[in-house]
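Handout for the seminar on molecular recognition.
Each group receives one record of this type.
Step one: identify the two inputs.
Step two: read the structure output and locate the region that could contact aspartic acid.
Step three: write two sentences on what you found, then compare them with the reference statements printed after the record.
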Amino acid sequence: MLRTHTCGELKIADIAKNVTLCGWIQRSRDLGGMTFIDLRDRYGITQLVFNMDNAAALCQQARQLGREFVLNIEGTVTERSNKNSKMPTGDIEITVSAITVLNTAKTPPFTIEDATDGGDELRMKYRYLDLRRNVNKTNLELRHKMSVETRNYLHEQQFLEIETPYLIKSTPEGARDFVVPSRMNPGQFYALPQSPQTFKQLLMVAGYDRYFQIVRCFRDEDLRADRQPEFTQIDCEMSFVTRDDILETFEGLTKHLFKKMKDIRFDSFPRISYDEAMQRFGSDKPDIRFEMEFTELNNALKGKNFKVFDDAELVVGICAKECAFYTRKQLDELTEFVRKPQVGANGMVYVKYSDDGSFASSVSKFYTDDDFHALAELMGALPGDLMLILAGAAEKTRKALCELRLEMGSRLGLRASDVFRPLWVIDFPLLEWDDETRRYYAKHHPFTAPKPKDIPLLETNPAAVKANAYDLVINGVEIGGGSIRIHNKDLQKKMFAILGFTEQDAQNQFGFLMNAFEYGAPPHGGIAFGFDRFCAVFGGSDSIRDYIAFPKNNSGRDVMIDSPSEIAEQQLNELNIKIR
Ligand code: ASP
């Protein structure tokens, strides 16, 4: 080894030891008689000292070295006269006796400090320099520990980690596939897996009754802060289990991770149905760190000649505690917020219930004080509270109010990133109707089993069928989702028919799975966690990018290696691809 110690470990107890360290120059200070260098590696920073009086040549040499030079130094651990209690190595410094420059470095394009001066694009382009910064290092350490603890837990529970292929077959369901041309099979393409879904089900048919994999998945979707074209799942499947067995096993994994990573313990996670989540929070991934639940107000507010409410399918509100003092300006801001296209409401009605018991409202023309009293009672509002009400088409209005609720939660400081409130959302609808293409889509995926009691409804009212599907939600983020699967060929066939597949198409695309169901498929189900998101939630961040060593930007580009890129004519020819 080129070093005896790391830059993060030397303490008072090491004084007088002769040591050799390697690292990068974080910064140097030249104080005339003395020169100091902060030497950094993955483990920390150690101060090096050079004294002009008794080692002039070395001191001169040290002064020539620039930021991020890579050094190997020998020296003696000495007690600092000026101790720094904020640094783990702050009690000591190294009186250097020899320097070897292992490599020089150009001046980095941004400062490698916690608060850097580098913008996003620049840091992405020089990601290897960005990764030298503490924030990124801490994030990748967290990610590593999460994967180790995941493996520990699942291994303890008898799960086998089994790899499934990355070059698979394109299917039209779900998101768009990334495809890979096959040179040996001209005109044919592989697809990169959106998830190992069908393979893990085949592993169940094969008898590997507890499978998991920390696995890369690929989806060619439009990107957002919490999406990447390639991302990682903790993918799991179990045989001979009920839904509750799965929820318990993976609640166990989640609790294990919280205990190991954060020393937080939980009671059982609440379980609420999809319908209830939509009604109470307007979302299938509710943030339950705070209440501010929805109150439906059709009965209370319709029929008083306020046309907007009278014409609306749904009138629904939230009560913001102790916000009656909100000014005109603040209320205007909220109205502007709900009108943003991403939120989608036309306007917002407020009712202030002042401390003195009086009401002030944007619709006071239409309602009496008695009406407002009744409203306050319905919404659980007390003097001092502010009621915010939206109206319109039910689904759209719930979605908009959900956004407003989250906005209010943030404004009121009710969404602290170090508070965690996990829950299960269960009983999702099996299908979703799409007006544009005039067909049903699987809400989860086509392999999800309907609730057994709803199977007859598949013929008569498919939209009403509930699935044996569940999501794990933490702080308003969908962390994982899964379902009990169909394991019967006829039911799977029927499902494809409902999704508008011809028998031939279903056979061509998923015949391998349906055939396998004829060879003794056990009942099975599973779940997959978005591993990057899980890490981000643990780290208290919204951005999964911060937890990926080499992420892509918002246009799906890796600006460091400049990809995607054109390929040579000859490569194209070999692949039988013509670009017009
Ligand atoms: N394969 C599913 C997904 O990627 C998860 C599951 O059902 O296990 O969302």
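Reference statements: Residues 195, 197, 445, 481-483, 526-528 surround aspartic acid (CB under 6 Å). The chain has three domains: 12-103, 138-272+423-547, 290-415.
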